[in-house]
Amino acid sequence: MAEAHQAVAFQFTITPEGIDFRLSHEALRQVYLSGLRSWKKKLTRIKNTVITGVYPASPSSWLFVVVAILATLYTRSDPSMGLINKIQEHLPVSGYLSHQSQTLLSALLFATLLWLAVILTMRYILKQLLSYHRWMFEVHGRMSNKTKVWLALVRIFSGRKPLLYSYQASLPHLPLPAIKDTMRRFLESVHPLLDDEQFKRMSALASDFENNLGPKLQWYLKLKALWASNYVSDWWEEYIYLRGRSPIMVNSNYYGMDFLYVTPTPIQAARAGNAIHAMMLYRRKLNREEIKPSRIPGTIIPLCSAQWERLFNTCRIPGEETDAIQHMQDSKHIAVFHRGCFWRLWLYHGGRLLSPREMECQIQKILDDTGIPQPGEEKLAALTAGDRIPWAKARKAYFGNGKNRQSLDIIEKAAFFVCLDDSEQGMMGEDPGKSLDAYAKSLLHGKTYDRWFDKSFTFIVYKNGKTGVNAEHSWADAPIVSHLWEYVLATDCFQLGYNEDGHCKGDVDFTIPPPHRLTWDIPKECQDVITSSHAVAQALAEDVDFHVLPFREFGKGCIKKCKISPDAFIQIALQLAHYRDKGKFCLTYEASMTRLFREGRTETVRSCSKQSCAFVRAMENNRIELSEKLRLFQLASEKHQHLYRMAMTGGGVDRHLFCLYVVSKYLGVDSPFLKEVLSEPWRLSTSQTPVQQVELFDLVNHPDYVSCGGGFGPVADDGYGVSYMIVGEEMINFHISCKISSSETNAHRFGRHIHQSMMDILALFSNGKKNL
Q: Which residues are in the Choline/carnitine acyltransferase domain (predicted)?
């Protein structure tokens, strides 16, 4: 209990002589330094609010405008065209000021109003410029004069040295498509999946919806689009994520992997020390808004940064009907799990962030602890892995007060959650492929009770120094966690580093209090709920089949030489692989971001198109000539790129249909069309994990420092989940998931089909060049 005594700033005892106070100067010093740090953060937040609030101008530009106005007045000219005199006439304090002071104050007010008007005008112009998206549909390498002028204007009005959130007020709102456009695009997307009779029936349903119920629902959506920053995002977060009552483990959470070939140190505590320190450096940059705003790769076009706000200090809180997201402005500790025990580890001491070496020592103390879990503690986190309703009821019944409430608060209000896993993972042993698959499964669900799946993310450190991250999905999408993860991996290896013994660098302050073990009083009834949740989670985890495929035969560089979009190439290869695997086409989901718009998240690219199906059938027909196959592939690639661009620019299908469905439920009306459309399963769900911070990784000089990307669980019981990451110029990593219980799917088999399909499509181009 030493840490408890150190937390007490003073003690007193009552004696016959009076009250005897005993002050703890060290504790008072820590209180002072903690308060000082909080005030510094508040002042930084205020400063950044001002800078962001006046962007694309700067606070110093106000002084320039004031000086310019006063200088013109000094030359006896009136740039305000009489407005300064009007302001002077209506000053409420005119009776207390001299004429010269009144003139000066009126000029200051006019200059300030002029400055604000210029800022609002610049923002409006920038918002209108960013609403133009036709540049995305131009042929690559052939920029029109109109686009060149537009790009120059964007550069002029984008300002200099933006902070993370500087562009938020200038981003356009997500446009609401017309009902007829969405119906046309929807029917076009399902046409290759239906026979003539089925398509005729679906066309009739769509026509009836378009002409009757659709316009009424659309009217309400128009109101929302005018009123809200984004007509989709809040409903998407609530109804797709927070209202889901099934387990979020496997079904919603996703993971990110460590380096594929390199483990910077085999010492678990040292790797944790460097990585945790790097995460806190990232949080510091985030709090100061020093992270550069994301942009479309290779352009100056900004993307929405709103999702970064809840990266740290965030937890999903279970509810019986709907969950909620709890976000704290600050958190000074992390929660750590090791061998069934929970700990609180302070991140600061003496008003400063613990060094990597100090963090390593703190982690090592947890690893060295020989304590045993308290009753119900070891598998407590299984509550976050099972169904949501039992967890919500248990939280309300058994964690509402006392030590259970205090300990749960420490976990939920932590900066993030850390799991010190006692297993060894990574690509190793006699069967590297099998070990990589086990690594993926471990990151996705672990033992089902050793990750706190409700936290914004859980950082996992294995016994052999390998690391990974498991992230909750409701608060943000994968690119946000990926951005953090890239920074952590690069900072860990290329900035912080390790000494020759594999330990973190730096000195240690041995007066730092040790980590604090959390205490629980979990009754038998709650332990029964934990056991039940664990059984549900265990069954779900055991049903997941996973395969990680590092595709090394060729990469982005080779695909670009064929003058094909790498994403289109991969998506068409997935269509070919799926057809070879199942002998049929299916509704395909590819996630596309809509962060060109304020508070944008994702839209669906329906990758299975009429053109891609035609190409796949041609590939399986040996009688079709090579030139025809190449022509069909080109058409399929162009169509896919068009669909992707439409999704990015607000012309997708699925988010619009989803919002129309939500409105119909609010109004209490049923739509056979919407009900049927939204109940169709996505039997092939895909997503690309982009490398966003290429400058952090020198793959030319350090080719082994490549991340393996990340993955997610299958969306449909009889379908596949495929995540892929394009690494450098010569590698593509695939993460394939499905369910063992399905007789139609097998992750390794599908992986072989993907590999062969990639090779076969490349062979088309190779043979095509030979024939030229």
A: 174-756
What 3-state class would DSSP assign to 471? strand
Q: Give 428's contacts (C-beta < 8 A, 6+ positions apart).
A: 435, 464
| Closest of 688, 605, 597 to residue 640, by C-alpha | 605
**What is the distance of C-alpha 302 from the center of its chain?**
16
- The amino acid at 296: I
What is the DSSP code (8-state) at residue 157?
H
Closest CA to 345 of 361, 330, 328: 361
Nearest Cα residue to 116 out of 55, 49, 46, 47: 55
Closest CA to 213 of 550, 663, 569, 629: 663
Give the orientation angle of helix 268-287 with respect to helix 478-491, to 10 degrees: 120
What pTM was estimated for this model as a whole? Answer: 0.91
pLDDT at 22: 55
Q: Please report, to the nearest 10 degrees, the dihedral formed by the alpha carbons of residues 34, 35, 39, 45 taken in order.
A: 50
Q: Is 473 a catalytic residue?
A: yes
Residue pair 737/714 in contact (Cβ under 8 Å)? The answer is yes
Strand ordering across the sheet containing 684-688: 544-551, 731-739, 720-727, 684-688, 588-593, 602-606
**Per-residue confidence (pLDDT) for residue 48, from 0 to 100:** 81
The catalytically annotated residue of 173, 445, 473, 640 is: 473
DSSP H stretches of helix in 543-694? 556-561, 566-582, 610-619, 626-648, 654-667, 672-678
Q: Does the CA dihedral 758-761-764-765 come out positive or negative?
A: negative
Using an 8 Å Cβ cutoff, are 403 and 520 in contact? yes
